[in-house]
Amino acid sequence: MKIIMLGAPGAGKGTQAKKIAEKYSVPHISTGDIFRSNIKNGTELGMKAKAFMDQGLLVPDELTCDLVVDRIGQDDCKNGYILDGFPRTIPQAEALNTALKSMGTSIDYAIDVEVQDSHIVNRMSGRRACTGCGATYHVKYNAPKAENICDACGEALVLRDDDKPETVQKRLTVYHDQTQPLIDYYKKAGVLRTVDGTLDMEDVFSAIIAILGE
Ligand code: AP5
Ligand code: MG
Fold first, then answer.
1. Is residue 19 part of a domain?
2. Is residue 128 part of a domain?
3. What is the mean pLDDT of the chain?
4. Site to substitute for ligand 1 among 39, 70, 141, most atoms within 8 A of C-beta
5. pLDDT tens-digit series, residues 166-213
6. Does 167 sit in the ligand 1 pocket, CB within 6 Å?
7. Residues spanned by the domain of 106
8. Is 160 tagged catalytic?
9. Are 111 and 195 in contact (CB under 8 A)?
10. Which of 28-32, 119-123, 130-134, 166-170 has the highest mean pLDDT?
11. Would 152 be classed as within a structural domain?
């Protein structure tokens, strides 16, 4: 099962991707998480990516495509995977397509988690991310048991650097310019499915299971 999660920043791609990965036992591959872990470890890739991420801009395709193509070629991806946050541009989608063709395979579903911009800024200001394991919470919709402490690993929860309202606005503009065209791209490929991302998290997940099957 090879799945792409599409949707605006804060639509709930990561939230749903984690649930899908658990239910169907396939790896969750988030380019945002990969970049954040590189930033935390002070790698060269992390330093390069941070300069773009902090401004709400996309990391250049040349830093992103090879990384993902290499990751999906690894052993644990044999039975499928969920790509969360990749592709994000038409050239990234083309690069993925070329790589999959050479492996003799293709994407099964591109799931668009649809949420209007008006919901997004509110959601992002309430998001808290774990500095240890990357788990995501929301102060109102998915609160941790103890304030600002991760349920899973006990590390501190923080507001992501790029979740400040002005950066979120920039990310939304970038999304509409560069990522939204992928909806048409995957519609033409016949694999697009859309779910209403404004529902409760569990209801969004049920809608996704209805698409993917039990
Ligand atoms: P990335 O980490 O991918 O960020 P994003 O796409 O902006 O999306 P988010 O992770 O912010 O949101 P999400 O849709 O995962 O929502 P979540 O589930 O957390 O990328 C960050 C940056 O890295 C980019 O800006 C770019 O610079 C760079 N980058 C990454 N990939 C790249 C690529 N391929 N090419 C170039 N650059 C790249 O949910 C959000 C909040 O809402 C949470 O608090 C959650 O608890 C809550 N929530 C979720 N669902 C619901 C619900 N149904 N109801 C109520 N609350 C909900
Ligand atoms: Mg995410």
1. yes
2. no
3. 95
4. 141
5. 899 999 999 999 999 999 999 999 999 999 999 999 999 999 999 999
6. no
7. 2-117+178-212
8. yes
9. yes
10. 28-32
11. no
Among this protein's residues, is 88 annotated catalytic?
yes
**What are the structure tokens assigned to 59, written together?**
């990391």
Domain presence at residue 136: no
The total number of structural domains that make up the chain: 1
Q: How confident is the model at residue 40 (pLDDT cuts 50, 70, 90)?
A: very high
Can you give 42-54 as a three-state secondary structure string? CCHHHHHHHHHHC
Buried b vs exposed e over 93-108: b needs ≥16 C-beta within 10 Å?
bebbeebeeeeeeebe
Residue of 29, 33, 36, 59 best suited for mutating to test ligand 1, as the one with most atoms within 8 Å of CB: 59
Nearest CA to ligand 1 atom 45: 138
* CB-count exposure of residue 62 (10 Å: 0-12, 13-18, 19+): exposed
